[in-house]
Description:
Blueprint: E1 4-12, H1 15-31, E2 35-42, E3 54-60, H2 63-71, H3 73-85, E4 86-94
Antiparallel strand pairs: 1-3, 1-4, 2-3
Helix pairs in contact: 1-3
Amino acid sequence: MTKAxxxxxxxxxxxxxxxxxxxxxxxxxxANSGKVLVGGGKADLREGHLSSEAVTILEFPSxxxxxxxxxxxxxxxxxxxxxxxxxxxxxxxEGFTPPPPSA
Length: 103
């Protein structure tokens, strides 16, 4: 099974509301078999450009688990705290499965 990742890139416009989102959303991620790999830290850009100042990366055991988390009533109930307090994007990413070694 290939892992799935959720990438959030955002700029915080309302720190207080975003703090409530982080406090409320983290347990929902964990309850859906997810892990927070990168938690909103500022990026140290070395090449190219980012469309925002902070990045969060979530890991789920599968795309289905990521979709279940996103669609869950628990997440939908707090999602507005993120969209109301930040500007940015959210994307689902497929994990990398390396090819088998060649003989």
